Amino acid sequence: MPQGEVRVVPDQLLFYCRPGFEHDVAAEVAVHVKLLGWQGRSDFSPQEGYVCFLVEDERPANELHRELRFEQLVFARQCLVALPPLSLARDDRLSAIVTQVVASGWSFDAIWHETPDTNEGKALAGLIKALTRPLESTLRKRGALRRKAAGRRLHLFWTDGDRVQLGMSFAGNRSELPGGIRRLRFPSAAPSRSTLKLEEAWHEFIPRDEWDERLAEGMQAADLGAAPGGWTWQLVNRGMHVFAIDNGPMKGDLMATGLVEHLREDGFVWEPPYRLDWLVCDIVDKPARVTAMVQRWLTRRWCREAVFNLKLPMKRRWEEVERCLAQLEDALADAGVRAMLRCRHLYHDREEVTVHVRLRD
Which of 14, 158, 218, 249 is the S-S candidate for 82 at Cβ 3.0 to 4.6 Å? Predict the structure, then answer.
């Protein structure tokens, strides 16, 4: 850093989320931060799609980021170490950005421009495109953007045409998706758009190089609350045999595959005839009731892996998720069942979260 320039130290963490879930991110982060022994406070506005956590501690924010594992978070789409927001001059937006990047003392091997997942954010696409090349060129000349920088990524989070916040992320503790969003193409043959929720869950929870082993042709699965067949379609598309449990009708094309046995029964009481490879469930009911049902399946080892959604209340959603996950973890531990459990608020989810559990035999 040139002599006389003042070092800018990150003092906060920046979280992206679905607009409307800012309070849930703040509540969840508060629990994790307290357990890690840090102090701070969240700052956010409803429906803005992001939360800033201001570190009120003498330690640098990047230390907290290192301790706070992104994969453990439910409602955050991305987690960054962030610098104070910048207000930019309309006739020279780049100078302030370059000055702050250089003053941070960090270097990066990639730059991502991102916005909140709002209509206002999407409207900034043209401006961002115009600034991208000039900014990259300038930062290369200043030595802040180079070919190898240990995987560090610079994120420019644009909230307005004259307001941006700089964040940085590190390989192994971030989302590798722009904006933390996995956009999937809707398969026209699928019965409903809910099919994308299960496909996204597989991408999120199962490494792609394990799909042929863990989502294999010939496996046996149950889909509770299956009609009209959006999740069953994903299972059949992988060549699995499916017990589709629902009193409602299934799409005729699915039944024609010969891979689906449709049973008009109550998914909460139905029991499989033998151990299955997969349980999936997207039943609309109270999250505690769905958790108890899945808990019965897992403690009795009726399946090897499960993906299920929990429909959340309008208020105190994080508290409900925390309660359901704790209930499930305690029940598995009491039954002596070892399992890996993760939960995420996926892009194709709305007022719900997706839980994945894999039993460890």
Answer: 14
3-state secondary structure string across 131-168: HHHHHHHHHHHCCCECCCCCCCEEEEEEEECCEEEEEE
- Whether 158 and 298 share a structural domain: no
Q: Is 228 annotated as a binding residue?
A: yes
Task: Please indicate, yes or no, if residue 1 is contained in any of the structural domains.
Answer: no
Residue 4 domain-assigned (yes or no):
no
148 and 291, same domain (yes or no) = no
Among residues 34, 129, 197, 311, which one is catalytic? 311
Q: Which residues of the chain have pLDDT under 70?
A: 1-6
Q: What is the DSSP secondary structure assignment for residue 211, as one 8-state letter? A: H
Peptide bond into 272 cis (omega under 30): no
CATH code at position 98: 3.30.2130.30
CB of 249 closer than 8 Å to CB of 192: no
Q: In this predicted structure, what is the pLDDT of residue 188?
A: 93
Judge if 33 and 132 occupy the same domain.
Answer: yes
**pLDDT value of position 58:** 84
- Predicted model pTM: 0.95
Does 6 map to a domain?
A: no
Which pair of tokens denotes residue 205? Answer: 């929870």
In angstroms, the CA 137 to CA 121 distance is: 24
DSSP state of 84: P
CATH of the domain at 232: 3.40.50.150
* Half-sphere CA count of 97, side-chain side, radius 13 A: 27
194 annotated as ligand-binding:
yes
pLDDT of residue 86: 96
Q: What is the CA radius of gyration of the chain?
A: 23
Q: Are residues 31 and 173 in the same domain?
A: yes
256 labeled binding residue: no
- Domain extent at residue 78: 12-180
What are the helix (H) ranges across 43-84? 61-67
Of 307, 285, 305, residue with least CA distance to 361:
305
Query: How crowded is residue 298: how many other Cβ atoms within 10 Å of its Cβ?
Result: 23
The answer to whether 202 touches 211, Cβ cutoff 8 Å, is yes
Catalytic residue list contains 197: no
Within a domain: residue 7?
no
At 1 the pLDDT is 47
Does one domain contain both 203 and 336?
A: yes
